[in-house]
Amino acid sequence: MDPDTSEITHHFPPFFKIHKDGRVERFMVSPFVPPTLDPQTGVQSKDVLISPETGVTARIFLPKTNGPDPIKKLPLVVHYHGGGFCVGSALGPATTLFLTRLVSEANVVAVSIDYRLAPEHPLPVAFDDSWSALQWISTHSNGTGPESWLNQYADFGRVFLTGESAGATIANNMAVRVGTATGLEGLRVRGAALVHPYFANDKPNAMMRYMYPGSSGTDSDPMMGPKADSDLGKMGCEKVLVFVAEHDLFGLRPIGVEYCETLRNSGWKGDVELVENQGEDHVFHLANPTCENALLLVHKLGLFFNDTSE
Question: Exactly one of 165, 219, 266, 285 is catalytic; which is it?
């Protein structure tokens, strides 16, 4: 190999490094696992192409059903995976295992969005892809969309947004955009569940500035810092559930706590609940999905998605 092309120009462990020739080398690669019928839970999954132009796809999860007649409409959970906007996948083993368990216990339909990753696709591409995916989902609200599972089983009056880490950041942004934009007719977002949200602080983040040209890499950027988002009080849902990890490796616990206070003081009229995962690290439920606290987290999410109170 030419030594010039192997030279490293940017190094952001534990996520990725950039070679002089522009090649991106990730330290964490999420292998593809095919959709399937899970024999233990009866949960089915399938992959769908959302946009031929961008290549954005999604994986849909359907709980075990007792036949199509009568068809019971189920809450619809839209999920955004974590990974610092630059690693992770909706089609990988961690997301698939987590959502299979969640869909089985909560009896919901879930759609996990495989948005394009930075730095090859700089931010705000991940946010744009996620919004386009939500618009695509909304085309099913009258029962005539391109995906039969959504037409038949999803209750578009009970839609929830969720994600972990960077995916929680996306879920927050989508919830705000629901309250400020048009184009989602027939879809009602009831709540957002943010698991260990990855928001910026007041210290410049070099990796974020690299992935998001023009961003300050701090919480003064409204996309990454809710305190700077003048539209936060217009969030388009009625309730928000926030999880923080007591021993968060990335120091995000106080940022998640502060987010709850910022939301409460923003003028938003909804309810926000904070849950601390004591003794746990960042997104522990993906690394250790069968531990007691991971099962409790899934149970709490299930209750949130099935709460029918207004």
Answer: 165
